[in-house]
């Protein structure tokens, strides 16, 4: 119950890492505000969460007014905001010649600019609480990826946004970090999970030999938000089964 009395806002909370993160904070006693564009899935996620300590709001992080409304929901219902988990995002896959300018701009607008807008909306209450921010980057934001240049670019931007804001916000007592998930079983990777040949190749690249689970990412988010991470700031923490530790060579026989 280390988060009892604390209030957490989780964006992209209707599925995957966001849903697992919201459940994790709720289980540890927090008041949790869950936001997503999908109200039906949000309703499913919160069915088993304590009603007195849970709120949902349908919103799009690409819209500044929606970001403000998410933060207002936390402040008006629970008296403030202590932790922001800026998790919402999506991917457009394909090589550059197959991705339109509009689709590329949409990924940047939602993932990178949307993360910035969410943080900007939460800035004042987090300053009051000397709170903490955890964004969701990706190992794709640390290195390139085949057929994912738009997504990788947006996540690289998030990583350096986190580093830069960590430097600027430290004088106000706000820590800013990010998790960088590796290949994780979520809705974003559902098509890949159904491709046995791709899955075999991907698992062969991951030293632990498997994909990650949303709950494993959520555990690291909860750590970064805790007092146990009180001297951790500006970090992009891979949660990837050892993927980024490897230079890609096969193991010795």
TrEMBL record:
Protein name: 4-formylbenzenesulfonate dehydrogenase TsaC1/TsaC2
GO MF: 4-formylbenzenesulfonate dehydrogenase activity; oxidoreductase activity, acting on the CH-OH group of donors, NAD or NADP as acceptor
Top-level taxon in the UniProt lineage: Bacteria
Domain Ketoreductase: 6-186
Entries under InterPro entries matching the protein: KR_dom, NAD(P)-bd_dom_sf, Sc_DH/Rdtase_CS, SDR_fam
EC number of the protein: 1.2.1.62
Keywords in alphabetical order: Oxidoreductase
Family: Belongs to the short-chain dehydrogenases/reductases (SDR) family.
PANTHER family (alphabetical): 3-OXOACYL-[ACYL-CARRIER-PROTEIN] REDUCTASE, SHORT-CHAIN DEHYDROGENASES/REDUCTASES FAMILY MEMBER
Record Pfam families: adh_short_C2
SUPFAM superfamilies linked: NAD(P)-binding Rossmann-fold domains
């Amino acid at each position: 119950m280390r988060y009892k009395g604390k209030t957490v806002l989780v964006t992209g909370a209707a599925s995957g890492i966001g849903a697992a993160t919201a459940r994790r904070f709720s289980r540890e006693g927090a008041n949790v505000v869950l936001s997503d564009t999908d109200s039906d899935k949000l309703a499913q996620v919160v069915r088993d969460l304590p009603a007195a300590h849970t709120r949902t709001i349908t919103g799009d992080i690409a819209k500044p007014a929606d970001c403000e409304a998410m933060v207002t929901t936390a402040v008006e219902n629970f008296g403030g905001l202590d932790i922001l988990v800026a998790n919402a995002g999506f991917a457009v896959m394909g090589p550059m010649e197959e991705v339109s300018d509009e689709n590329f701009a949409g990924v940047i607008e939602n993932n990178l600019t949307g993360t910035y807008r969410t943080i900007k909306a939460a800035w004042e209450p987090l300053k009051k609480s000397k709170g903490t921010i955890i964004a969701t980057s990706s190992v794709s934001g640390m290195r390139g990826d085949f057929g994912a240049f738009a997504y990788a670019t947006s996540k690289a931007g998030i990583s350096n946004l986190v580093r830069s804001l960590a430097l600027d916000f430290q004088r106000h007592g706000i820590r800013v970090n990010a998790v960088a998930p590796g290949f994780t079983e979520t809705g974003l990777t559902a098509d890949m999970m159904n491709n046995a040949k791709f899955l075999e190749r991907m698992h062969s690249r991951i030293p632990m030999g498997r994909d990650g689970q949303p709950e494993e990412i959520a555990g690291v988010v909860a750590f970064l938000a805790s007092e146990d991470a009180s001297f951790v700031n500006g970090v992009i923490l891979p949660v990837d089964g050892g993927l980024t530790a490897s230079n890609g060579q096969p193991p010795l026989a």
